């Protein structure tokens, strides 16, 4: 009888452990090697997913902005709904943008589907 109780107890513990192990983050994982530069993005094909780090340095028109990193500048399109739940961003705020390359009529831009304010916050003049 003791063996059955001990076996049942061990089985419950193992089952709980297996359930806990299977509960983990399942979304996309980005490493620093996934982060591109403006210079590289300008050579990519249409619809390629990209991640960029830098600053939004100005608004060009409606939903179009100028993005800057250490390699250059590029037009990015950020729909209004993407800005929801994003802290205030100005030309000195470092951000990470997630989007895809848009090639149209000889120009290259990035359609942004997510923007995050980096923990480092404001620029210190390095980019």
TrEMBL record:
SUPFAM superfamilies: Hypothetical protein YgiW (SSF101756). Keywords: Signal. It holds the Pfam family BOF. It comes from the Bacteria. This is NirD/YgiW/YdeI family stress tolerance protein. It comes from Prosthecochloris aestuarii.
């Amino acid at each position: 009888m003791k063996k059955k109780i001990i076996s049942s107890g061990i089985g419950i513990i193992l089952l709980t452990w297996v359930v806990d192990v299977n509960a983990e983050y399942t979304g996309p994982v980005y490493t620093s090697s996934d982060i591109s530069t403006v210079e590289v993005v300008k050579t990519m094909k249409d619809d390629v997913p990209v991640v960029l780090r830098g600053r939004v340095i100005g608004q060009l028109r409606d939903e179009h902005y100028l993005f800057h990193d250490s390699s250059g500048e590029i037009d990015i399109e950020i729909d209004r709904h993407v800005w929801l739940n994003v802290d205030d961003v100005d030309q000195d705020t470092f951000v990470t943008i997630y989007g895809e390359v848009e090639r149209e009529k000889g120009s290259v831009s990035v359609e942004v589907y997510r923007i995050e304010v980096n923990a480092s916050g404001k620029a210190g003049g390095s980019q």
